[in-house]
Amino acid sequence: MKSVLIAIAFLGIGLSGCSNTAKNQNTTKRQYKYYCVMHPDIGNDKPGVCTKCGMELVEREADK
């Protein structure tokens, strides 16, 4: 009986991990006008500093 409960617990943990992965794959990254060179996922539409490391955000080059 104890092993059945442990198996159910591991199954629940495994399934909850799969649902988080699926959500992350469906998200789209936003292209900010200003971004951090060390953390490209951090940015803003106006000048500022990175919320992770404090570096100045740099302006993206315009597409040619």
Short description:
The protein is of the alpha+beta class.
Please give a structural write-up.
The chain has 64 residues and is an alpha+beta fold. It has one domain (2-59). The protein is built from one helix and three strands; from the N terminus they run αβββ. The protein has one helix at residues 2-25, and strands spanning 34-35, 43-44, 58-59. The protein has a three-stranded antiparallel sheet with strand order 2-1-3, with no helix packed on it. A hairpin with a 7-residue loop joins strand 1 (34-35) and strand 2. The termini are far apart. InterPro entries: HMBD (IPR045800). Residues 33-59 form the Heavy metal binding domain. This is Heavy metal binding domain-containing protein. Keywords: Signal.
